[in-house]
Design goal:
Keywords: Cell membrane, Disulfide bond, Ion transport, Membrane, Transmembrane, Transmembrane helix, Transport
Number of strands: 11
CATH architecture of the largest domain: Up-down Bundle
GO molecular function: sodium-independent organic anion transmembrane transporter activity
Strand order of the largest sheet: 4-6-5-9-8-7
Main location: membrane
Strand content: 5-15%
Radius of gyration: 37 Å
CATH superfamily of the largest domain: MFS general substrate transporter like domains
Protein name: Solute carrier organic anion transporter family member
CATH topology of the largest domain: Growth Hormone, Chain: A
Membrane topology: Multi-pass membrane protein
């Protein structure tokens, strides 16, 4: 607009003010030459409409003025009427410029000419623009013949934000559901925490080896369709997750459920051979002796376990693809389309809506695990029983169906949003105004339109390795996420054992707390940054405060626990030689007389004392009502109960004692602040990351970030899983092979679970101190871009100005 208005002013000064009968020959006026009145170069715009206007004004001494042809007269000098008409025409053209500029970008027949001192003339044509930004068809919604006009109205950042958020919800739902059902899969197939940790890292191994390449090539292609392809593979992964249930069914748990509660009780009188036979039959494994010998000879895992590990690992690998695409090209596509001062709010909305994914996954796992592994069969086992196995496979059907909608939405999105195109075009023209060198430098910072190659990737890696802000922020995220991923994976198991809450209840409470805290953290932080736009240094100081708050919350969770006391009968199972003195010596003798098996089916006596099983309590009969089993005639309870009234009428119910501890509710309150700090940190870290790299390096940088984080997600769960296994006191064994852990030492468990996060967040805190020191290099809200029309850093501008002088 400024260039065209300058042209109007120049034409007015040449034709409407001066006398055309003077010695200046207007017909010989060259619009490409410098103005005779000034040393400044004349900047003009060639267009069809301009040539029409210039033809009206064209005149010469002794020639007929075109405006007077209707009069049939020839005038060498323009009169006042002609001069007034000339001014009116120019005023009209000036008005048209202002009204039509936004609606009329460069066309094939138009071009802008820019002159700059020391660089000569530079023409910005439509062809040049498309060479840098790609053809206009990149901004069209739809696929194939489905490119209707109404679809083009959907090519907006808000519509993409919706599709992107739904993708994040389904991706997060899939991953959290897998984590929420992992303990049940361990129990069903007899897997250790170390093995489940190995399965989980399949999601990250893909990103370690292929994330950089996927991010680079997808980032320079049709990014939404790459995401759609990743969602399709995630749908396939859901069916792979389910396949172990198709292949192996419910296993031994349904067979054992066929035994009644009284079948698992042996009387004190060993002469009752019928009860003894029932006990041995009830506790007998459904695996035949020949099959057991075969599986022991095959290695450390059974054939069934090998198949489950491979299938679950493969499903995690496919899920890793959509995770990689979501975080790399998905966020960069949104960042390109939105102004920098608004991007904190957009990122916060996307992050907030994505929180519904993990929360929905945990809620879905809670719903699924409340159903028996075989929903068509009835069971007398309570969900609170350690032997309960829920329908872990059921929720994957719902997740797969929910992914169809975002996949179709992503398929229809354009390769480049019109808002992205407009912002880049404006910056190109602003860069051209500052000179050809500045234009070329800015064009190099844009995402290339040609097909990417491995050769082009190497310079980008070199640029990123020399970027200290980029290196610092990815190290910060490495320590931050690597430390908390273990808490996310094993928190359900921790709550089950530390507070004696069922897996379904643990997932339900965790889902609600995560939703409330994360929504508050994301939206609160993003809205504050977008509306108030504090200084970069103030934002970085807030990250330090957030890290300190997170460390304090982890320390608080570490200190919260419940002291449940010992499990009577566990010493007999462990064959512990250090038996305690009277009165427990008589209890040990009482249990030994029962000849109980090692199947863990705890019972609670008088709401305070937990026995390893009803057999260890000396019970001989039972009744079941509303899935609650109560035992009677328990001869071994009198050795620990001091209240004589309770001895005569003891209440013995199936399950662990879970009364008298309010630690779980305190734990939930602390978890709220924990999740809030995590969400707030992520909202800020994402923006710092994007402001640390150029547009052409965004996708490659995100690919490198995924590699670093995936390596952290791979190593840390394995380490934490191995440490947690060290806190196990009793393992379930089959055919002499160790399966999943039945009983943990809770004090050791919480030390390993929360010790590593405290160390990791502390290391990330030191990285944030370095970012604070280099805060001047971070253009958080794009203030420096605004000063220079969104083109260069202040240092580069200063260098060019000095060269020109």
């Amino acid at each position: 607009v400024e260039l065209q208005l300058l042209l109007v002013s120049e034409v007015r000064s040449r034709t409407c003010v001066s006398d055309m009968s003077n010695n200046d020959d207007y017909s010989s006026y060259d619009p490409n030459s410098s103005s005779p009145e000034t040393d400044d170069p004349t900047i003009v715009l060639h267009s069809d409409s301009l040539e029409v206007q210039m033809s009206i004004l064209e005149g010469d001494n002794g020639h007929t003025h075109r405006d007077d042809k209707s009069n049939g007269t020839e005038k060498g000098d323009p009169d006042d009427a002609q001069s007034e008409e000339c001014k009116n025409l120019l005023n009209q053209y000036e008005k048209e410029i202002s009204e039509k500029w936004e609606a009329e970008p460069l066309t094939k027949s138009s071009q802008e000419k820019f002159d700059h001192p020391g660089e000569g003339s530079f023409y910005l044509t439509k062809e040049v623009e498309e060479e840098v930004l790609g053809p206009e068809t990149y901004t069209l919604c739809g696929i194939g013949i489905l490119r209707n006009g109404w679809l083009q109205k959907l090519a907006r950042p808000e519509v993409y934000l919706l599709a992107f958020s739904i993708t994040g919800i389904t991706q997060g739902m899939n991953f959290s559901y897998a984590g929420g059902t992992m303990t049940t899969i361990q129990r069903r197939f007899g897997l250790s925490s170390k093995t489940s940790g190995f399965i989980t890292i399949g999601n990250d191994l893909f990103e370690i080896f292929l994330s950089v390449y996927i991010a680079y090539f997808a980032g320079n292609g049709h990014r939404p369709r790459w995401i759609a392809a990743g969602i399709l593979l995630a749908i396939i992964s859901c069916f792979i997750f389910i396949s172990p249930h198709w292949l192996f069914g419910a296993g031994d748990f349904v067979e054992l459920e066929k035994k009644s509660a009284t079948d698992l009780i042996i009387g004190i009188n060993q002469t009752d051979t019928r009860k003894a036979d029932i006990w041995q039959d009830g506790c007998k494994s459904t695996i035949s002796e020949d099959q057991c010998v075969e599986e022991v000879n095959s290695g450390s895992f059974s054939n069934e376990q090998y198949a489950v590990i491979i299938l679950q690992f493969l499903a995690m690998v496919l899920l890793g693809l959509v995770t990689s695409l979501y975080y790399s090209v998905g966020y960069s596509y949104l960042d390109d389309a939105v102004p920098k001062n608004k991007i904190p709010l957009y990122f916060s909305v996307a992050g907030t809506l994505r929180i519904f994914g993990p929360v929905s996954g945990l809620a879905l796992s809670s719903w699924s695990l409340r159903k028996w592994i075989d929903p068509t069969a009835s069971t007398s086992i309570s969900p609170k029983s350690p032997n309960w196995v829920g329908a872990w496979w059921l929720g994957y059907w719902i997740i797969a169906a929910s992914m169809v909608v975002p996949m179709c939405m992503m398929m229809m999105m354009p390769r480049q949003l019109p808002s992205t195109r407009k912002r880049q075009t404006d910056k190109l023209r602003a860069a051209a105004k500052q000179g050809h060198k500045v234009y070329e430098e800015y064009a190099k910072q844009l995402r290339p339109t040609h097909a990417p190659t491995f050769k082009d990737m190497l310079p980008g890696l070199k640029r990123l390795s020399k970027n200290r802000i980029f290196v610092c922020i990815i190290m910060n995220q490495f320590f931050f996420w690597g430390s908390i991923v273990g808490v996310f994976i094993f928190s359900t198991k921790y709550v089950e054992n530390q507070f004696r809450v069922s897996a379904a209840d643990a997932n339900q409470y965790t889902a609600v707390i995560s939703l409330l805290a994360s929504v508050t953290g994301f939206l609160g932080t993003g809205s504050f940054l977008s509306w108030f736009q504090p200084k970069t240094k103030a934002v970085l100081i807030s990250t330090l405060i957030i890290s300190i708050g997170l460390i304090v919350s982890y320390l608080s969770q570490f200190l919260v626990n419940c002291n449940w006391g010992e499990i009577y009968g566990l010493e007999n199972i462990l064959d512990n030689d250090n038996l305690k003195t009277s009165p427990q010596t008589s209890l040990q003798k009482c249990m030994s007389d029962c000849n109980c098996g090692d199947q863990f089916m705890p019972v609670c006596v008088s709401h305070n004392y937990t026995y390893y099983s009803a057999c260890h309590a000396g019970c001989t009969s039972s009744t079941t009502f509303n899935k609650i089993t109560e035992y009677s005639n328990c001869s071994c309870v009198e050795h620990i109960i001091e209240d004589t009234n309770k001895i005569s009428h003891p209440v013995v119910q199936e399950g662990l004692c879970d009364e008298g501890c309010n630690g779980f509710y305190i734990y939930l309150v602390i978890s709220f602040f924990n999740q809030f700090f995590i969400a707030a940190n992520r909202a800020i870290a994402n923006i710092i990351f994007f402001r640390s790299v150029n547009e052409r390096d965004k996708d490659l940088a995100l690919g490198l970030l995924n590699v670093i984080l995936s390596f952290s997600f791979t190593v840390c769960p394995t380490i934490i899983g191995t440490l947690i296994d060290q806190s196990c006191e009793l393992w379930k064994e089959s055919c002499g092979r160790r399966g999943h852990c039945i009983i943990y030492n809770n004090n050791t468990f919480r030390f390993f679970l929360y010790g590593l996060p405290i160390v990791g967040v502390t290391l990330g805190f030191f990285m944030e101190l370095l970012l604070l020191r280099w805060s001047d290099d971070i253009d958080f809200f794009g203030e420096k871009e605004k000063e220079l029309l969104g083109i260069m850093s202040l240092k580069d501008k200063k260098d060019i100005d000095e060269k020109e002088k």
